Amino acid sequence: MASAELQGKYQKLAQEYSKLRAQNQVLKKGVVDEQANSAALKEQLKMKDQSLRKLQQEMDSLTFRNLQLAKRVELLQDELALSEPRGKKNKKSGESSSQLSQEQKSVFDEDLQKKIEENERLHIQFFEADEQHKHVEAELRSRLATLETEAAQHQAVVDGLTRKYMETIEKLQNDKAKLEVKSQTLEKEAKECRLRTEECQLQLKTLHEDLSGRLEESLSIINEKVPFNDTKYSQYNPLNVPLHNRRHQLKMRDIAGQALAFVQDLVTALLNFHTYTEQRIQIFPVDSAIDTISPLNQKFSQYLHENASYVRPLEEGMLHLFESITEDTVTVLETTVKLKSFSEHLTSYICFLRKILPYQLKSLEEECESSLCTSALRARNLELSQDMKKMTAVFEKLQTYIALLALPSTEPDGLLRTNYSSVLTNVGAALHGFHDVMKDISKHYSQKATIEHELPTATQKLITTNDCILSSVVALTNGAGKIASFFSNNLDYFIASLSYGPKAASGFISPLSAECMLQYKKKAAAYMKSLRKPLLESVPYEEALANRRILLSSTESREGLAQQVQQSLEKISKLEQEKEHWMLEAQLAKIKLEKENQRIADKLKSTGSAQLVGLAQENAAVSDTAGQDEATAKAVLEPIQSTSLVPDVESREDLIKNHYMARIVELTSQLQLADSKSVHFYAECRALSKRLALAEKSKEALTEEMKLASQNISRLQDELTTTKRSYEDQLSMMSDHLCSMNETLSKQREEIDTLKMSSKGNSKKNKSR
């Protein structure tokens, strides 16, 4: 394989070398053509220089001729001026001479006009030739420069290609030497492999015997137990509980505690900054105690007064996040649900910053427009307005990245795991940007405060407020720097801790799976904790079933007793009603008895028997006391039974009454006993019916379990048959392979025998010779 790869590499390099060689020839030809063109252009340039020199010589001669003609014209003009006064004196004598001079003058004028025109034409030709020569010279010079640069570039390319070719040739030669060495080593290895194949054939026999034994053992294990693989489906792998890393959790809690302390310092500094800014608005440029401040500053002060409702939740959100990171949890982005609430609180604070930013800028503009503001103070105010815009922008950028980090715990598709490290890096960059902005604000505000302190109208209240604002800005700067350095120092740990999760899965797929994993982790921890407790003595199965029946019957008897109590209460109420009824009946009977006694007394008066009157009075007294001293009344009536009929009637009625009362009591007791027995039987019937229903349900469940067990048995039998078949196929394939290897071995042995025989025959022939 290695030799084939090197041979392919060598062929590729040879092809590249041939291509580069063809390109080198083309480039050489182009360089030669360009050199020929440059030589021709140089010849043309020489010819143009020669023609230019000839033209310059002609121009010099023409200028000299023009000078001569100009001198001649001057001389002729002087002669004409001298000849004019002479002509006036001798007009008559000089008419002939004047005519001659006029003819000469006209000839001179014509000659002069021709020379002037020729001179003008020559000047125009010279100027045009000069301009054309300059243009051609500039064009040729530029073309020559471009050709020289191109020739230099081509020469550099040619030198680079030659250097590259030499390097490739040396490299190919080295590769060739290495390949030769490697081919020799491969030949040695091939010889060793041949020896190893013989050893492997011997080992194959032993392995075949070993595998056959292991196959029988594995088949017996499969028959007894069914293997279970809980990592077959990748979508369920995140539900597996990872190993508990206590060091990681303690580290994350420590980091969260440090972050909480930094955020608390930052919240305190922000509260002081907004509060002291509100106090400053009330003092400068107009003191609210002396005069009313502008409506803009009033609105700005009202908004600043609400800063605590936006800043305090940041500390609360960070505190909830810190409390959610415990030693028992698994801290990754998918499980930090409280980061979403912190992100929401930060969003509300950024909305507050956006709301107060226009008022803050307008307030600074109002300070600039006041008469107390100098040019230096105006420049500081403009710088502060730019810094406030940068501060709001940095907070918005930071909130964007924190919202992205909160997405894995709420929306799994919102942020990919591959982008976690880049988002964390951008958070660190945003924190450093926040620190830089706060340093600029601190610098510019300190300059502004020093300028305002030098103003003649600066009050002690303004100086104190500026110092407080400056101290809060310095605290903000220090807090931002601490948070930025803290995040940068722990950035590598944050990025490395993102892979903390289930081993068999790529990570937590969704917040729901992470939540389920945490629940399973709690259950597993509770189970492990329960395992540490000493086990109680186990109850035998039969005893447990008996106790269950007793428990069910006791619950049923409890329900029956409750029903009996309810029924007895109803009977008591009915008996109370009957008691009242019989009390009324007794009162009516008492009234009737009094009337009857009165009637009897009247009869006794008519007969004149005093004893009967006394007896009647005693009977009335006995009836008034409601049956008290019944025995004495009977004793009194017994001795006089023979004297009167009335006492016999009354005693008979009492006997009948007592008999029926005893009978009623007996019947009521029997009725109560029958009622209690019926209630007990009813409760037992209900318990039996419920037991029957439970038995039917258990029967159905057992039938279902039997069906499932039969299905599992059939499935396992099918799997066993398939595994047996697969193992049998493997064994058959191995046996076939072994047979083929045995055949090859036998063939080789036959060849070796033939070779030995041939060698023996040759040796015998040699001996005979």
Automatic annotation (TrEMBL):
Residues 95-104 have a biased composition (Low complexity). Residues 3-72, 137-196, 558-592, 685-726 form a coiled coil. GO terms for molecular function: RNA binding. It holds the Pfam family KLRAQ. GO terms for cellular component: early endosome. Residues 84-104, 749-769 are annotated as: Disordered. Keywords: Coiled coil, Endosome, RNA-binding. InterPro entries: PPP1R21, PPP1R21_C, PPP1R21_N, PPP1R21_six_helix. SMART domains: KLRAQ (SM01254). It is found in: Early endosome. Residues 11-112 form the Protein phosphatase 1 regulatory subunit 21 N-terminal domain. This is Protein phosphatase 1 regulatory subunit 21.
